[in-house]
Amino acid sequence: MQPDTQHDKPFQLTMTVLMTPDKANFSGNVHGGTILKYLDEVAYACASRYAGSYVVTLSVDQVIFRQPVHVGELVTFLASVNYTGNTSMEIGVKVMTENIRDKTRRHTNSSFFTMVAIGSDGKALTVPPLDPQTPEEKRRFQQGQERRQIRRELEARYKALKKQL
Ligand SMILES: CC(C)(COP(=O)(O)OP(=O)(O)OC[C@H]1O[C@@H](n2cnc3c(N)ncnc32)[C@H](O)[C@@H]1OP(=O)(O)O)[C@@H](O)C(=O)NCCC(=O)NCCS
């Protein structure tokens, strides 16, 4: 398992992993936790390479496993820095799963990670501002900004709910 750093833009990263039998759960499909671990790793690598620093995971948005991933399939994680704040970055990861025998591909899930750059003093570090160029990059930036707002609203609602207990 190696990130493909040759063909991606500096804010993108692709990683492909073969789902070997050791990744199976009790039903014989790939364990959800295995996919979560790879998602976090690819988000880390994408954010750290972009920021040029160590990064930590601040949050992970809702992850929905739409379809099972089977042992023997090839899973590709397509990561991209969608949005940058001052010290935080939203990393979007799209998961494509390929049956290597019949060559069919399907989109099995997507998720959004918020990663924060950390300096050698252990404090949050300013990241290079993202400069979206293409219509797709601009759309992702805009939507990343909106999701940042939604996260804040959601956190406020969760806090209010906790107070009711
Ligand atoms: C991420 C962390 C360094 C942020 O620390 P902090 O003291 O809140 O730092 P700051 O106030 O400077 O915030 C840093 C960034 O995080 C964002 N942030 C912090 N708390 C947030 C929250 N609750 N919701 C959304 N964003 C938040 C801030 O907006 C800021 O982003 P910006 O600069 O782009 O605006 C700290 O919370 C931490 O170390 N968390 C643990 C991370 C970790 O170990 N992850 C792995 C878990 S096993």
UniProtKB/TrEMBL annotation:
Q: Cellular component terms, GO, for this chain's entry?
A: cytosol
Lineage, please?
Bacteria, Pseudomonadati, Pseudomonadota, Gammaproteobacteria, Pseudomonadales
- Put simply, this protein is called Acyl-CoA hydrolase
Please tell me whether the keyword Hydrolase is annotated for this protein.
yes
One MF term in the entry's GO annotations: long-chain fatty acyl-CoA hydrolase activity
InterPro entries assigned: Cytosol_ACT (IPR040170), HOTDOG_ACOT (IPR033120), HotDog_dom_sf (IPR029069), Thioestr_dom (IPR006683)
Lineage: superkingdom:
Bacteria
Q: Does the keyword Nucleotidyltransferase apply?
A: no
Q: Where is the HotDog ACOT-type domain?
A: 9-121
Which protein family is named in the record?
Belongs to the acyl coenzyme A hydrolase family.
* Any Pfam family hit: 4HBT
Per the record, the GO terms for biological process are: acyl-CoA metabolic process
Q: Which keywords does this chain's UniProt record carry?
A: Hydrolase
Species for this entry: Azomonas macrocytogenes (Azotobacter macrocytogenes)
